[in-house]
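hiii so my PI (J.) wants the whole complex modelled not just the main chain, which honestly fair. so below is everything: two entries, each one labled with what it is. i double checked the lines twice but i was tired so who knows lol
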Amino acid sequence: AQSVAQPEDQVNVAEGNPLTVKCTYSVSGNPYLFWYVQYPNRGLQFLLKYITGDNLVKGSYGFEAEFNKSQTSFHLKKPSALVSDSALYFCAVRLHPLSGGYNKLIFGAGTRLAVHP
Amino acid sequence: DADVTQTPRNRITKTGKRIMLECSQTKGHDRMYWYRQDPGLGLRLIYYSFDVKDINKGEISDGYSVSRQAQAKFSLSLESAIPNQTALYFCATSDFQGLEQFFGPGTRLTVL
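here's the output for the full assembly
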């Protein structure tokens, strides 16, 4: 069965330090991978995606993510965390359309990022 | 103005009541989705619609029904609400490629 795992419920980082939010996936075929962020009392906002090509993708607000096919991972990173980055982060995977993706996203459980001043 | 709107934003109801959650979008997208969010479970797909005449069940459709009244409107109904349907509900839209989904602000539903 297809699944997405975010092994950490919460990540704590000091402001100015680098941050990593981990994501691993288990799908058949070639996946499309996404990161979304949810601020309090808001809907999810798209951060970045990996479709094909360069394994390092850059997204909004200075975030980037690295696709590692051999480790089936897609970790979210930022070189220098801000207090305003504190939010709930979701990794999601979508199957390639030729693998029956049909635009359906499978979400991880979410990781709460807390950036302390 | 928000591209994807949901009404109501908050709703408290009693077991057995019928509830309708509404979603409207101005993005011109054909594809619309309903998800529920529960702590520690992420988002799970309830129903999705690729156009007005194409509606499909997601992974947790039992106890829910939907109506796609127009390209811009997609409603979720709970025919007889039960307490374990207490959750945060999100509507989302995408174009046909689906490379990015756009989410509404959510409806917090409490079933007593």
